[in-house]
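lol so apparently i was supposed to do this last week
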Amino acid sequence: MAGAKPLVGILMGSESDLAVMEEAAKVLQEYGVPHEVRICSAHRTPERAAAYAREAAGRGLKVLIAGAGGAAHLAGALAAGTVLPVIGVPLDSSPLQGLDALLATVQMPAGVPVATVAVGASGARNAALLALAILATGDRALRGRLEAARRAMTEKVEAADRALQEKRQR
Ligand code: RP5
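anyway here it is w/ 5-O-phosphono-beta-D-ribofuranose bound
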């Protein structure tokens, strides 16, 4: 995977977002999907964010994931500059605990969509899974792996329930 052209861009507004956004990178790594991880702020580096969005499709990227906290405009700012699918991850990095970021990310004006996932680390993981699902629309092998992962998840819950029922009958 090293050296391969990235298919997914993971962006975040600040280095302080990295620990959470690495959860998205881990999922993509697990599936062997080439990706890049960048720090790029809608407010502090607006020109870089605009250039990234403008050039993303031409560089071969297929999906963008953008995490930001507070007045979280990164996902929206990227979506304004590309028609690639953009997935927004609201982050809990302010006294409002992510509610501000959630609203800022999800409330896009009609015509410029951002697919918004849950706040924080589980949202970051789901953002990567959603990016994989988008890539899997044109990749049968990847779709098969996602389906297998869902089946494994189902079996885990069923096994946990069986174990619980056995324990309660004792
Ligand atoms: C947002 O402000 C970033 O996405 C981060 O979540 C938050 C705080 O950034 P720092 O002040 O820690 O750089 O733009």
